[in-house]
Amino acid sequence: MPAVSTLDDAGFEARVPLIIVGAGAAGLCAALAAREAGVEPFVIERDASPSGSTALSAGLVPAAGTRFQRAKGISDSAELFAADIQRKSHGESDLALVETVAAGAGPLVEWLADRYGLPFDVIDNFNYPGHSALRMHGLPTRTGRELIDRLRSAAESQEITVLTRCLADRLFVTTDGRVAGIEAVRGNGVRERIGCDALILACNGYGGHPDLVRRFIPEMADALYFGHPGNRGDAVLWGEEIGASLASLGAYQGHGSVATPHNILITWAVIMQGGIQVNAEGLRFCNESRGYSEQAADVLVQPGGFAWEIFDERIAGVARQFEDFRDAERAGAIISADTIAELARAMHMPLQGLSAEWGEVEDLKSRAGLDRFGRRFAPDQKCVAPFLAVKVTGALFHTQGGLAVDKCARVRRKAGGSFPNLFAAGGAAAGVSGSSAAGYLSGNGLLTATVLGKLAGSTAALLAGSSRAGAHATEVPR
Ligand SMILES: Cc1cc2nc3c(=O)[nH]c(=O)nc-3n(C[C@H](O)[C@H](O)[C@H](O)COP(=O)(O)OP(=O)(O)OC[C@H]3O[C@@H](n4cnc5c(N)ncnc54)[C@H](O)[C@@H]3O)c2cc1C
């Protein structure tokens, strides 16, 4: 059966104003925004309960100019944030989209906090690479599980229908290029055709589809995929069939710090606070502070495909605000020793290389020096015994390429213009991370999930409303 078919509205068994495929951060933000605009969204989720990659994340949303920042005396602006995104993506991202998400993030975080009671605050004891202000907003547990659970509760409080154990399997488009509806498969195998005025694809990217990863991101073809397995590239596959414009398909969020063999994320705070990575020979191999995303491929090409991250108790104290780090400690992933020589023995590593690297780094820290890779160290990053280490590998977290969208989150056509009633948000949409792992600025994932989700929901709701009133889809403001 083809994934996309043409069909008239008459062929549907049910009709709703707005269908949202996927109940991650993007889908649920879209649903809340649509509901506020007076439209009843119909959310379809393949899993038994909403989780997605959102639940696997640290749940940190970057946002500029928020009251949480102001309360801590942090000065920031949407313009500064947009410039940071563009700098990290080497100017390769769509500027209008960058400006839209940078400007939308502050209001988004305050919207979720004020309207739906999500208790955000801003992390102020370390910064992520590439952000020129402290702007990572997180929930008390610093987990994506808390984020998705709170979004789900908000959706429940608004009586939003989330149909779980239901897979969107097929799109129907009319001959004039409007999306007419979908075919969904329930958990019991029953198929159902549902028509809609507007459709939002919030089903994330193709990290869970090994063939698509091999096709678009060959360097990660054999890497551990750390995201949600149910994100199988449906948006991209449908997009290819209906003539949508696809962009940035080689872009992704990698992470060069996943404890192995435990498969637990070790926060990049460990590096940003002064930790380093060495390979099995005890040698450093790059400027770790560029970012965790590009570090994934760099770790994977080291002998054995792993590295050791070395730090101290002070740094562990900062990292412990993350549940993942505490889990890693409980799992025995973090080892400790009183001297670098003992640590080298515990890591089964020759002491000579490690000892020289460690001595050089600690010396550079004392004099705020620049190393041979271009990393600048600072005196407050100095480490003292006991020393800690964790063995890590590189992983693919999520893909950043997808359906190109305009600044209303409407999917663009390859032939020019946009589909009148098809929207994409989050990992289903092409993000703002340029064309590779190196363009990913921390937080770009939830940034485009939440901000584009909200935008798609409110714009699609206008469309569903105007459609109900008998107007044409193309009357939605651009
Ligand atoms: C370990 C990890 C840590 C991360 N940390 C951060 C972070 O701190 N900050 C940040 O900004 N980003 C982070 N990210 C990235 C972030 O998680 C994602 O960018 C974000 O969650 C994407 O949200 P989404 O709603 O697009 O996708 P998801 O949350 O994955 O939701 C998509 C949903 O669609 C469903 N679905 C898929 N296909 C179908 C279909 N055909 N029919 C029905 N349902 C379908 C899936 O089951 C899923 O529930 C991290 C990712 C990982 C893996």
Features:
478 residues, elongated, alpha/beta, disordered C terminus, binds flavin-adenine dinucleotide
Description:
By secondary structure, this protein is an alpha/beta fold. The chain folds into two domains: about 5-250 and about 400-475, FAD/NAD(P)-binding domain, CATH 3.50.50.60; about 250-395, Succinate dehydrogenase/fumarate reductase flavoprotein, catalytic domain (Flavocytochrome C3, Chain A, domain 1). The chain contains 15 helices and 21 strands. It has helices at about 25-35, 50-55, 65-70, 80-90, 95-115, 145-155, 210-215, 235-240, 270, 290-300, 315-320, 325-330, 340-345, 350-365, 445-470, and strands spanning about 5, 15-20, 40-45, 60, 120, 135-140, 160-165, 165-175, 180-185, 190-200, 225, 245, 250-260, 265, 275-280, 305-310, 335, 385-400, 400-405, 410, 420-425. Strands 1, 2, 3, 7, 8, 9, 10, 20 and 21 form a nine-stranded mixed beta sheet that branches. It starts with a strand and ends in a 10-residue tail after the last helix. Mean pLDDT is about 95; it is low at about 465-478. The structure holds flavin-adenine dinucleotide. Flavin-adenine dinucleotide binds near residues 24, 57, 58 and 204. The site of flavin-adenine dinucleotide has 44 residues, from helix 1, helix 2, strand 8, strand 18 and helix 15.
